[in-house]
Every structure is written in C-alpha cells, then in structure tokens.
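Translate structure to sequence.
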C-alpha cells in the first residue's frame, strides 16, 4: 500500500494471520462432525443382532434406515461447509447468517 503507515501495514498483517487461523479452526470444527457421522453410519450399517428368533440388521427397521440416511446427509453437509469455509474470501454478515441458519437445520 502506497500511502500506508508501518502501523497500518502491521495491523493488516495481523488481521490476515488472525483470519487464517480462524479459517483453519472453523474448517477443523466443520470436519469433526463429518468424521463422527461417518463413524456412526458405519457402526449402524455393520451392527446386527442374533437371538433365538433370528437375526436383525439395520435394513429391517425403518428407523435405522432413516438414521443412516440422516447421518449421510449430515456428513455431506459438513464436508460441503468445510470446503466453503476454507475458500479465502471476506466474511460478510450474509455469509455468516447463512452458515448459522444452515447449521440449525439438523436441530429442527
């Protein structure tokens, strides 16, 4: 910057470093649920019970099929939001509110 003072340049560099570390933290926090969803999905797919009356798997129960699909959707959303979060662009209020509202959808 041509008309900047050394203090302004230093503040700009600090903002870039803080933004980069925040972006990394946000990306990691968005990838963590994806891993947990995939682990839950695999456990539910592999789980089966056998007793005197026969065996039962996840595909025999509609509720478990629903949960497997829900875990897959949550894992996909977490991956997509992590990819969007890692792209370096300025954070705007509309982007922050969009992420916030989309993050609340699984809670409904």
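Result:
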């Amino acid at each position: 910057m041509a008309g900047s003072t050394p203090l302004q340049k230093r503040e700009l560099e600090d903002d870039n470093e803080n933004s980069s570390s925040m972006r990394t933290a946000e990306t990691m926090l968005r990838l963590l649920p994806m891993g947990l969803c995939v682990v839950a999905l695999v456990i539910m797919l592999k789980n089966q019970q056998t007793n005197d009356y026969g065996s039962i798997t996840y595909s025999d129960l509609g509720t478990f099929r629903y949960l497997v699909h829900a875990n897959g959707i949550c894992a996909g959303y977490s991956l997509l939001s992590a990819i969007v979060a890692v792209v370096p662009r300025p954070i705007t209020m509309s982007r922050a509110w969009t992420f916030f509202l989309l993050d609340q959808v699984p809670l409904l």
